[in-house]
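> forwarded from #structure-qc
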């Protein structure tokens, strides 16, 4: 089971993002404050869970958390700022939405743009170590996946309901055939199948 806290006695918010690698769609981030003695045997890094497990965990996290919030940055903002900066901005937006102010931010990864007034601790692979970060990873992933399934109805040719905007061979082939949608990240390194040009 993952760790319940980084520093005993502090109100900690775990923060994580989903969607840094896709060619399309926003990057989502979540911030979650769990009780300091929180325990959940199933909770883990969202990448280690099945879609069914993530969706089962989401309402449990939302019910049992002291506070939680989800936010995003659009493809246009990603193009304007770059994906790393947009990921940090999405995390900041999620933290701003919390109805309880944390005393420490636990950030998944090795870099973060400091949030005003709240100290942070970067933790590599933190979503596989700490409950609050794992909970944030589950919320960010499930909300992003749902969003991609919704916009897939607007642009069915890319099958985002299946690939969630990631650079699968099918997705890239469809981009080469049909061009890019307003949801695509225009500044990403596009390596489309040359045979279609």
């Amino acid at each position: 089971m993952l760790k319940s806290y980084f520093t005993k006695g502090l109100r900690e918010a775990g923060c994580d993002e989903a969607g840094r690698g896709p060619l399309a769609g926003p990057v989502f981030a979540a911030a979650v404050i769990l009780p300091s003695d929180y325990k959940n045997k199933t909770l883990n890094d969202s990448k280690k869970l099945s879609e069914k497990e993530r969706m089962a965990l989401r309402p449990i996290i939302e019910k049992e958390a002291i506070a939680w919030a989800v936010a995003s940055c659009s493809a246009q903002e990603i193009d304007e700022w770059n994906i790393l900066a947009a990921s940090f901005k999405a995390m900041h937006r999620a933290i701003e939405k919390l109805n309880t102010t944390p005393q420490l931010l636990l950030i998944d990864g090795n870099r973060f743009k400091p949030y005003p007034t709240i100290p942070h601790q970067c933790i590599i692979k933190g979503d596989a170590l700490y409950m609050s970060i794992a909970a944030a990873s589950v919320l960010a992933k499930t909300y992003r996946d749902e969003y991609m399934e919704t916009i897939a109805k607007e642009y069915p040719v890319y099958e985002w309901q299946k690939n969630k905007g990631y650079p699968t061979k099918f997705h890239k082939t469809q981009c080469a055939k049909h061009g890019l949608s307003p949801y695509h990240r225009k500044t990403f390194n596009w390596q489309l199948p040359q045979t279609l040009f």
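QC bot note: The longest helix spans residues 131-151. The chain has one domain: 12-151.
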